[in-house]
Amino acid sequence: MRVFRTDEDGKSERVLIRFEAPTDLQNVGLLYMEHEDRPNDYFLYTPETRRVRRLPRSLADADLYGIEPKFLRFEMAHTEPIKIRSLTMGRLEDRRAYRFVERALSANHRFEERVTWIDAETFIPLRTEHVVEGRTVLAAETREIDLVQEVPTPLRMSFEKPLEKRHVEVYVDEVDYKREIPEDVFSTLTLMKTHLEKR
After folding, report:
1. E-strand stretches of 81-134
2. What is the pLDDT of residues 123-132, one digit of tens each?
3. Is 167 left (phi over 0), alpha (psi -120 to 50) or beta?
4. Are 147 and 132 in contact (CB under 8 A)?
5. What is the spatial distance between Cα 177 and Cα 126, in angstroms, rounded to a whole number?
6. b/e code 142-173 from CB counts within 10 Å (16+ = b)
7. Which tens digits make up the pLDDT trace of 40-65?
8. 71 within 8 A of 125, measured Cβ to Cβ
9. What DSSP string runs through 14-70?
C-alpha cells in the first residue's frame, strides 16, 4: 500500500492510504481527515462500486487487513478512552524501553488492557499487546528500525492475532519525509483515481 500523511505546521492530521495488493484490495482507498471543530471524517473508496462512502467511526477504527493503524503512528485509530495504569522503565530484548500499561474505561472489542513498549531513544513503539479476558488478542511488533533522512523509521513490522491464527508482515519499501504533498491529494476525488501519480 502507499500512504500519504501530513500534520505539518500545526495542521490537523490527514492520511490517504491506497492498497496496491493483494488483488482483492487493489485500488481500495481510505481517507482520514482530522478536524478540531467537528467530528473527524473517514472515507472509503471501493473500485467495484466506483463510489466513495463516509465510514462511521466504529468501522474506521477497525484494523486494516489485520494491521493496527495506531501502531503505524496514524492517529486515525482513536481506539477507546483509557486510564493509565503504569509507566515503568525496562528492557525489551536489547533495547531500553518504557513499559506503558493502559486500561480501557468502557467495554469494547479491541482491548481491556493495552501494554506498549516504547523505545527510550527513538520513542518508536517496539511492541503493543491488546489483552481481553487475560488473553492477548493482538500483538504488534517493530522488527527493523533504520535512519531515513536522519529520522529513525520502522521498516518492518508484524501483526499477529493468536486467537484467529492471523499473521501479517509489513515491509516499508520507501519513505520520503521531505517531499511536499499537494493539498489536493487529501480529497475524495483523489480516492477515486485509478492510479496515484508519483509526487
Report:
1. 82-92, 95-104, 113-119, 125-132
2. 999 999 999 9
3. beta
4. no
5. 21
6. beebeeeeeeebbbebebbbeeeeeebebeee
7. 888 989 888 889 998 876 655 555 55
8. yes
9. EEEEE---SGGGTT-EEEEE--SSSPPEEEEEETTTTEEEEPPHHHHTS-BTTB-GG
**Cβ atoms < 10 Å from Cβ of 199:** 11
> What confidence tens digit (pLDDT) does each residue in 89-100 have?
999 999 999 999
Cell numbers given for 110: 479491541
Q: Which residues contact 177 (CB under 8 A, 6 or more apart)?
A: 148, 149, 151
Q: What is the pTM of this model?
A: 0.74
Round the average pLDDT of the chain to a whole number and report it. 85
What is residue 156's predicted lDDT score, i.e. its pLDDT? 95
- Asked whether 115 and 129 are in contact (CB, 8 A), the reply is yes
Residue 193, pLDDT > 90, answer no
Q: What are phi and psi of 126, to 5 degrees?
A: -90, -35
Residue 199 pLDDT: 45
Dist CA 41 CA 60 (whole Å): 9
Q: Count CB neighbours of 56 within 10 A.
A: 8
